[in-house]
Amino acid sequence: MAAWGERLAGVRGVLLDISGVLYDSGEGGGVPIAGSVEAVARLKRSRLKVRFCTNESQKSRGHLVGLLRHLGYDISEGEVTAPAPAACLILRERGLRPHLLVHDGVRSEFAQVDTSNPNCVVIADAGESFSYQNMNKAFQVLMELENPVLISLGRGRYYKETSGLMLDVGAYTKALEYACGIKAEVVGKPSPEFFKSALQQMGVEAHQAVMIGDDIVGDVGGAQRCGMRALQVRTGKFSPKCGA
Amino acid sequence: MAAWGERLAGVRGVLLDISGVLYDSGEGGGVPIAGSVEAVARLKRSRLKVRFCTNESQKSRGHLVGLLRHLGYDISEGEVTAPAPAACLILRERGLRPHLLVHDGVRSEFAQVDTSNPNCVVIADAGESFSYQNMNKAFQVLMELENPVLISLGRGRYYKETSGLMLDVGAYTKALEYACGIKAEVVGKPSPEFFKSALQQMGVEAHQAVMIGDDIVGDVGGAQRCGMRALQVRTGKFSPKCGA
Fold this sequence. Notes:
Oligomer: homodimer
Largest interface: A-B, 32 and 32 residues
CATH architecture of the domain at 95-187 in chain A: 3-Layer(aba) Sandwich
Helix content of chain A: 25-40%
Radius of gyration of chain A: 18 Å
Distance between the termini of chain A: 22 Å
Order of helices and strands of chain A: HEEEHEHEHEEHEEEHEHEHE
Largest sheet of chain A: 5 strands, parallel
CATH class of the domain at 95-187 in chain A: Alpha Beta
Shape of chain A: globular
CATH topology of the domain at 95-187 in chain A: Rossmann fold
Number of strands of chain A: 13
Structural class of chain A: alpha/beta
Strand content of chain A: 15-25%
CATH superfamily of the domain at 95-187 in chain A: HAD superfamily/HAD-like
């Protein structure tokens, strides 16, 4: 294996996943992952550009950044690339009015979006809001559309909270895809557009960037397919059994 | 198209789906589908053998038969082939102790099954019991098993209640399959074993039987793959758009 210096030659920017890399979410706001507060501080003092690239879709960026600052991270909203704001851009561009199957914590990100008379469904990590009633409502909205459009904020299978592994939005997206016989459009990692927007926001080319995450598919695979380098941490949902 | 007499030549037994064929479930026990009480009575007076072959997994057979009798059907528990009793046989044969992700209404079917220290998950149409918490618990049980076994009572995408279309167990099975990276074993239609057990119970060969249902995949396709003839009714979840 090449030395770290060689493997990271020419890197000008670092993209950091948040959940499972910076902290494990959970009761009381979660806990930081050992050493990561210091690691982020060192990165930000270095010559490297740093950006946070998350599929967090249960909390607004404001809430997320507040939590992380409370845990000791030097981070601001403007440094975070997250799927809800990216989805809002797409909705506006395409004149889509979503039925929102989302957690109350992220609803504020959609405050400027017209949700009357829905012509699509946006699904995010709704957590406890993934009730049968809410899932069924989203299903019924899709079944009534001539051309059902389902926009999914990520495709994660699960993530790790302090209390254990938790089902992520990808599982519920699969459920709706199967029930309606459709394919969702994914906003968030591993979508190439999402990585590209993060790179643009930091002003770095793909070959000059490294993505650091705990998800072998969403973080590592997605970044590599965009021409970036990628590192998988052994925290968060990482498991030696399957690497994800 | 051949005349009915020709198409049904040699038929000795009729298998009837229940939901969407006999009745639409819903508030107050549901409503019978026009003409079907009389049709079942005529079939039972004829020389044909009749059996009810359902993927109903939210109610026990006792409860289901009680509802149908109340709606005017001449039907007894012994005439019903349903997935929960079939699953119980499999669990016993293979020494499996299930974690049950099921509706309270069907729990009595599993009364004789050892559910301590689970080594598999059984998922049925849990309806309102498909909460995030219950789904996550089933997911966590599967993720802790060395060889996760998921037994799904049917694979239906949705069914029709009097209030509209409702997500069925298949959608939630897909969610767990995706999250855990596994494939469920299906007990119920369209599994060939399930049709074969119904045929055995009525003492009729596949080529002598016709299946009548509203589901183009679970009823019609499944029966045809077993060598049976099949008819799709235009009630229940039938839609002229997609035939299912």
